[in-house]
Amino acid sequence: LFQRIMVVGQLRFVEIGRVAYIAYGPDQGKLCAIVDVIDQNRALIDGPCTGVSRKQINFKNIHLTGIRLPMPRSLRTGLLKKKWESEKIQEQWGKTTWAKKIANRELRSKLSDFDRFKLMRAK
Predict the structure, then answer these.
(1) CA distance 28 to 62
(2) Residues 6+ apart with CB under 8 A from 27
(3) Does the pLDDT value for residue 10 go beyond 70?
(4) Which residue, 24, 40, 83, 94, has most beta carbons within 10 Å?
(5) Which of 13, 26, 28 is nearest to 102 (CA)?
């Protein structure tokens, strides 16, 4: 009687090569790629182009993006950097509405009181 309709682009699985956004911790706000899955709670991540060193992280501290990087398991940092640049991951991330919202939030947080007033009057 009831049918489940699954939208293909909205499923985000934890997989090797999945690009993730770090939500908590010292690298908060940076992108990384999942290099290997350690167990059901942790993954090995690396973000050579975003300044994230290779380390393990809990899945609760990251948000999975819709971007996937085709790569083998446990790829070294130098090869990952070449893949990251060839696939233009930063450009793909910049085009997402998620990244645009984050950039807009940062821009608004840097406004002075007078700039916020001018913005309010412009609306």
Answers:
(1) 9
(2) 47, 51, 52
(3) no
(4) 83
(5) 28
Q: What percent of the chain has pLDDT over 90?
A: 72
User: Confidence class of residue 8 from pLDDT cuts 50, 70 and 90?
Assistant: low
Interatomic CA distance for residues 93 and 20, integer angstroms:
10
Sheet containing strand 52-58, edge to edge, reads: 52-58, 42-47, 31-37, 18-22, 62-68
- Whether 46 contacts 62, CB under 8 Å: no
**Which residues, 6 or more positions from 70, have their beta carbon under 8 angstroms from its beta carbon?**
17, 83, 87
The 10s digit of each residue's pLDDT in 53-94 is 999 999 999 999 999 999 999 999 999 999 999 999 999 999
Kindly state the greatest CA–CA separation across the chain: 58
Q: Which H or E run contains 20?
A: strand 18-22
